[in-house]
Amino acid sequence: MSDAASPLSPEPLPSDEKPSSVVPNTAPPSSPAQGTQWRLRLWPAVVIIILQWLVMKIPGWVQPASLWMFFGLLAGSLLGAVGIAAWWLFASRIRWKTRLWVLVSCLAMGVASYAASHKSISVIGYLLYFLPVLTTAAVVWLVLTPFLRGSIRWAGLMVVFLAAWGYPILVRMDGIDGNFAAEMHYRWEATPEEKLLQEFAARPNHSKTLPTSEASSTPALGPGDWPAFRGPNRDNVLKRVRLAMNWKEHPPKQLWRHRIGPGWCSFAVVGNRIFTQEQRGKDELVVCYQADSGEELWTHGDENRFEELMSGAGPRATPAFHEGRLYALGGKGRLNCLDPETGKVIWEHDIVADSGAKVPMWGFSASPLVVHGIVTVFAGGNDGKAVLGYDAVTGKLAWSAGTAINSYCSLHPARLDNVEQLIISTDVGLTAFEPATGRIIWEYSAPEPSVVRCIQPTVLGNSELLLGTGLTKGAEKVRVRHDGDNWTREKVWSTNAISPYFNDVVVQRGQLYGFDAMFFTCINLEDGKRKWRERGYANGQVLLLADQELLLILTEKGDVALVDASPDGCKERARFHAIDGKTWNHPVLVRGKLFVRNGEEAACYQLDELGGPLAQH
């Protein structure tokens, strides 16, 4: 089509003459008089699309799940779109009326698409996941269709625009995985939470009261129980446990498996009861299940709903059991002290009101810690109200301290240089508090304004600990010592060999094991150098079976794997698929029962222990 032709009109005959005319057409090929050829210059557009995808993909190949990867995706999409628009307007060599008409049509469809899209599809979602498809599809269409008549080619381009802009209207985005890949479903499909609510609605006799057999069984902490986040010592380490690894011949036995409301917390396990939190519609619940059967025993609900686009709805913090009481912090800051027998409220507080803090971007995530009769949580308030400590019995605010604003960590109990303290990783670095009074014992300055810290500080010995920061920000080994009230803090080493983000690490025989984005990694703690790293476990969580020198890894895809805790290489011993859906929650292993959950399902498996009838020694 020439610059003089209408963009939607059929191609004219090769000349202005009748077909039978013998008069030759002597007009130059580019002359408007001929009116038959598209003068479209395509090679710059092809180059732009290739560069766009290289910019989007190379950072992810080099550093998966990193800020560089995110910025590469965003920059590639934006630069590609701007580049294609610039090519179309200034270098396509077709007439201006056509250029403006096509560009305005595309932009109008985009605006209409965004207006009609699901609430979960943000502007960033359009830039990361839809705009590159649009630009690529448009250029591919033009490259593949030079043989078509002009009007058909332009009409086809409009269809490409309609399809590319129409798809976002049809879907919702159910968050992203650990490598920034979007989870898309058709918007009319029921979410896992909606399916759960439908199941409950179909049970007219469903009751939240305790069965008679359970009504008088007051929970009491016993050997092997898992009373709080990451276990009795809050370190994801199990001792005096040895598992059989013959899972191919004798796979773990599923005791129960059922839907669960969304949430990113784990379980507390006391006796035959397990406690967790989940979202069900407008209600944020603390839920008690029977460990053996998965039967719901009771729920306590507050009319709260925390939800954000990246990881979805639900509370983030694991409940804590301590001396006959259960403590749970909700995603919007409701701190409950409950009777673990019935779910009845003993006391409650709103940490937003008590601290003046704002609800964080990803919700309050501090799993309560009870030490010396004080239950502590991170709030992030100003004026010395970063951490709040409440009397565990009465609920009275006992102390507040600290200057940090951002953290998704919990307070961590430690004895450093023979002094008992509570430590936490935040945007300002590391801070240690006296448990009973909240007095700041020492601080280690390592400000990080761009990446929030999400994992626990890892105690490495009597005077050393690890501070980790995700998204390629690395980790530091820190040594603290004291002489009276004077504490010295020094950085022993820093490394970029591992950047633990929301996946906690474990330590065995001088080696650290954990996730560096998509890679499961072993780091030597003497010098911070990497021993090995392996794909295939994808942003999961890990437990250490210390006596067996074995790692139990729950992957992001819901697989459970057993891997040797050895610096000599990643040797996988066994694997099975446990649950479906994105799985970021910490697994729990209690008396041979493995409890796993995510935002969709919860399940319990019996794992054979060495010495059992199916064990292979």
Spatial extent as radius of gyration: 30 Å
Instruction: Please tell me the overall pLDDT.
Output: 90
Question: End-to-end distance, in Å?
Answer: 78 Å
Number of helices: 7
Contiguous runs where pLDDT drops below 50 for at least 5 residues: 1-38, 209-215, 613-617
Biggest beta-sheet profile: 5 strands, mixed
Which structural class matches the secondary elements?
Answer: alpha+beta
Task: Characterize the overall form.
Answer: globular
Quaternary state of the chains: single chain
Q: Percent of residues in beta strands?
A: 25-35%
**Strand numbers in spatial order across the main sheet:** 3-31-32-33-34
**Overall strand count:** 37
Helical content stands at: 10-25%
Notes on the structure:
This protein has 617 residues and is an alpha+beta fold. The protein has a domain at 43-186. It is built from seven helices and 37 strands. The strands form ten sheets. The protein has a five-stranded mixed sheet, with no helix packed on it. A four-stranded antiparallel sheet has the order 4-37-36-35. Strands 5-6-7-8 form a four-stranded antiparallel sheet, covered by helices on one side. The longest helix is centred in the N-terminal third of the chain and has 24 residues, at 67-90. The chain starts with 42 loop residues before the first helix and ends in an 11-residue tail after the last strand. The relative contact order is 0.09. The model is unreliable at 1-38, 209-215 and 613-617 (pLDDT under 50).
